[in-house]
Design goal:
By secondary structure, the chain is α/β, with parallel strands linked by helices. The chain has helices at residues 16-23, 42-48, 62-72, 107-116, 133-139, 150-158, 198-207, 216-223, 228-233, 246-259, and strands at 12-13, 32-36, 54-58, 77-79, 96-101, 124-132, 159-167, 172-173, 180-187. It is elongated. 34% of the residues are buried.
Length: 261
């Protein structure tokens, strides 16, 4: 009997109805599948029934990686590594359909890493990911709301996002203390192109460092007190960070890059 490790944020999905709902979001026949954090392989089993071309799973836990190899033999390929230390662009020449019951303690770090490291050739065609509900609400929130923030802006820069469903704690073993949410992501065809994606990360980090305060101070910090950019864009410097929509942050990042070129 494998016990979930709290230190790795493990909660194993055991609800067959939810598993069926997740694997039926897309047609998986002959697809290349990447699953993150498969745990004991319950979702993996559901995916296998849909006849994919190949399943690659990434599992950090040594005991679980051994269990998966024993359970599925050559039906899947197991990579026993930390997802945060893997360059997904090097995993295959083919694009993946990605599933993940992401460890709650690193889910935002994983998503941010994927978005900021996207290359011209995108390594996935879609992401079907499970988050703590509170985190999912931040990802899909609108500006002028409390949950809107850096994660919202980064995710929506490169991805179209749709909520699939909420999942209650009874669907997991052990039961988490919070609800979960499944989100579906597809890469955007049209998006703002930056010289370096890390500049968007920097601009949003500085603006949201003090999210309850006016944006005047972070704006001055980034643009050396030059108010001509805010005037041109019609930005009220007495606003709060959550009052600016996605596009404003994308345009501010372009202006920041222009200033330093």
């Amino acid at each position: 009997m494998i016990k979930a490790k709290k230190s790795l944020g493990q909660n194993f999905l055991i609800d067959k109805n939810i598993i069926d709902k997740i694997v039926n979001i897309l047609e998986l026949k002959n697809k290349n599948i990447l699953e993150i954090g498969p745990g004991t392989g319950n979702l993996t089993e559901g995916i296998l029934k849909k006849n994919p071309k190949k399943i690659l799973v990434i599992e950090k836990d040594n005991n679980l990686a051994s269990l998966l190899k024993e359970k599925f033999k050559d039906k899947i390929e197991v990579i026993n590594k930390d997802i945060l230390k893997i360059n997904e662009n090097t995993l295959s020449n083919q694009t993946f359909t990605v599933f993940g019951n992401l460890p709650y303690n690193i889910s935002t770090e994983i998503l941010s890493k994927w978005v900021l490291n996207l290359e011209d050739k995108i390594w996935f065609d879609s992401l079907i990911l499970m988050f703590q509900k509170e985190v999912a609400d931040r990802i899909i929130s609108n500006f002028n709301t409390k949950s809107y923030g850096r994660l919202t802006i980064l995710a929506n820069w490169r991805l179209d996002i749709k909520k699939i469903c909420d999942i209650n704690p009874m669907s997991f073993q052990p039961k988490p203390k919070i609800d979960s949410t499944v989100l579906f992501f597809r890469p955007k065809k049209n998006f703002y192109s930056f010289k370096n994606s890390k500049n968007l990360e920097k601009v949003t980090r500085i603006f949201f460092m003090h999210r309850r305060k006016m944006i005047k101070k972070p704006y001055y910090q980034l643009f050396n007190g030059d108010i001509s950019i805010s005037a041109k864009m019609g930005i009220d410097l007495n606003s709060r960070p959550q009052n600016l929509d996605f596009e404003t942050y994308f345009k501010l990042t372009k202006e920041y890059e222009n200033l330093r070129s």
